[in-house]
């Protein structure tokens, strides 16, 4: 069964960019990545899923229930961390978390204590006295305290130091082992690469592709760097499958996807002094979806 099903979801803001015909599914028990640069439409998609905004057209379901019609019911099963967190400044952390827990009609005291120890958060402090990173930790605990079946995270690591990010990822993997489905939205590819099985890539409000992380990293992509005897016009490598083409002095680099024999034939006609062929990381593969081919 799919935990999330999104079909042709469109949110039109008039002149401002929304989302257009976004469709993808997240399987139960999956950690699914949702990536794209800031402003691509990730938060709009998530807010529509959570019925914080209503779609112009299309539909979305969580655990088979329509997101808009059954929003209050769905909310009990979902933990959400928005990209920016805002609170009543005068409250103490523990009071805020107890207030949040009261909506779920179950005792979350033990869970709050456990999570605050993992995230190294002082429950006695006032919200007003917390740094941005510690406010983010409050949001993480708030999203997880009721042990939700679905965890939706929108740019969750901003404000967390690298050590705390590691603890947070370990915590998410633990929740996933216990059966939670996770939708992880980020513009930081290395995070998604570490955490997710599959990924949806969004650009300018439109879904570009849904891929397995392993497929994105597969050997179909190679990174070439060539050192020439003479300076060469980079247009020599203008051909299908060549992206991210850069030339500096007598060095040319590019990303290639396709039949390696074709590119090697073209290289063999040149006088080269050195060649490097490497596996690109996901960052470079991802850029391929954003740059228009030269």
Query: In the CATH scheme, what's the topology name of the largest domain?
Result: Rossmann fold
**CATH homology superfamily of the largest domain:** P-loop containing nucleotide triphosphate hydrolases
The profile of the biggest β sheet is: 6 strands, mixed
User: What is the H-and-E element order?
Assistant: EEEHEEHEHHHEHEHEEHEEEHEH
Strands ordered across the widest β-sheet: 6-7-8-3-9-10
Average pLDDT over all residues: 90
* DSSP strand content: 25-35%
Shape summary: elongated
What is the CA-based Rg, rounded?
Answer: 23 Å
* CATH architecture grouping of the largest domain: 3-Layer(aba) Sandwich
* Helicity range: 25-40%
Q: Please tally the β strands and state the result.
A: 14
How far is it from the N-terminal to the C-terminal residue, by CA? 42 Å
- CATH class designation of the largest domain: Alpha Beta
Integer tally of domains: 2
Structural class by sheet pairing and helices? alpha/beta
Q: Unreliable stretches, pLDDT < 50, 5 or more residues?
A: none
Number of contiguous helices:
10
């Amino acid at each position: 069964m799919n935990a999330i099903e999104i079909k042709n979801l469109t949110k039109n803001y008039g002149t401002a960019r929304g989302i257009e015909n976004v469709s993808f599914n997240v399987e139960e028990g999956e950690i699914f990545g949702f990536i794209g640069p800031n402003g691509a439409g990730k938060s709009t998609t998530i807010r529509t899923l959570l019925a914080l905004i209503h779609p112009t057209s299309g539909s979305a379901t969580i655990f088979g229930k329509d997101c808009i019609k059954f929003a209050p019911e769905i909310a009990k099963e979902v933990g959400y961390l928005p990209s920016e967190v805002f609170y009543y400044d005068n409250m103490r952390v523990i009071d805020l978390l107890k207030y949040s827990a009261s909506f779920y009609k179950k005792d979350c005291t033990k869970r709050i204590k456990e999570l605050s120890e993992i995230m190294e958060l002082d429950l006695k402090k006032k919200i007003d006295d917390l740094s941005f990173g510690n406010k983010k930790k409050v949001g993480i605990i708030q999203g997880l305290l009721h042990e939700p079946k679905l965890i939706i995270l929108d740019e969750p690591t901003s404000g967390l130091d690298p050590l705390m990010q590691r603890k947070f990822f370990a915590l998410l993997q633990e929740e996933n082992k216990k059966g939670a489905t996770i939708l992880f939205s980020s513009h930081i590819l290395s995070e998604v690469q570490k955490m997710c099985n599959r990924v949806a890539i969004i650009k300018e409000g439109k879904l570009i592709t849904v891929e397995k992380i392993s497929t994105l990293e597969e050997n179909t992509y190679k990174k070439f760097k060539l050192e020439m005897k003479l300076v060469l016009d980079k247009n020599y490598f203008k051909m299908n499958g060549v992206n991210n083409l850069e030339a500096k002095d007598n060095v040319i680099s590019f990303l290639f996807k396709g039949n390696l024999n074709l590119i090697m034939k073209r290289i063999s006609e040149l006088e080269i002094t050195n060649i490097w062929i490497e596996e690109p990381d996901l960052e470079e593969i991802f850029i391929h979806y954003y740059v228009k081919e030269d």
